[in-house]
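User: Okay, second chain of the day. Same drill as before: sequence in, structure tokens out.
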Amino acid sequence: MISVRDLRKQFGSTAAVDGLSFEVSRGEVLGFLGPNGAGKTTTIRVLTCFHPATSGEVRVGGFDVRTQAIEVRRCIGYLPENVPLYPDLRVDEYLHYRAALKGVPRKQRKSNVERAMERAGVLEVRNKLVGHVSRGYRQRTGLADALVANPPILILDEPTSGLDPNQRRRIKQLVKDLAQEHTILFSSHILAEVQDVTSRIVVIHRGRLRADGTAADLIAKGSSRTLRVEAHADAETLRRALVPIRGLSAPRTTDLGDGTTLLLAAIEQQGDLRDAVAQALAAAGVRVRELRVELPTLEEYFYSVTEGADRSEEGVA
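Assistant: Same drill. Structure tokens below.
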């Protein structure tokens, strides 16, 4: 449904997007991540035909954003981070107006507006002025606007920005429900939300693709895996037992009391070391209370491929 190939966008001598490529399949919910200034908003503006691409090929719904902008816009329901609403219109008046602008046939407008309000959860404020409803309802009104023409593709840019935890939870559930009928590009700085609602994640940084995959796959590929062992033994016994295990480094021990020790060690190679560790501890006569591998969080992985990667490159330089 969305195809981005070697997208480049220049603003003068600055490359906001530099050779970005990714695909979004029909029915997929893609999390679009990156730190501030990574090029996310610029990419979204190219997808929505707000900015022309400097080079590359971008197709949305099978249409080229360069030559078929009208068709592309008909395919998209767009919720920007700061929703541009008319505060002096009532919610249903605003949505009828937006439906007319989007070319919804007159006979279908009432039913489309009713359905959009129901799905976005704004029926109870339909007769209120947009300027008099809460931030959460304004965000939902913007979402109803994105839905009113029933487009196959939704692009949601920071849809929970500025909302309280209860409002964020409702929006997340709504996105999950919408995923049954729409292809969704979901951009957010709140990584836990992205992990909750998306089926795949793309991370960009400095205008380039840094990661692409499911949250579980990306975390599993993370470099910072830690072996955690709690055992009924002293620190020295634990250390000696694990000396033959290759791929462990920087072991740290903590006395937990009652003759129990906690050992944490960095895992420097791929593969599952738990069987080898369990066998080594059993051979040393150590009684284990807990043995597991701690994976990095999505936040830690995000750091490693953005700012962490920058620092590594600077160190090499």
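Residues 311-317 have pLDDT under 50 and may be disordered.

User: Thanks, on to the next one.
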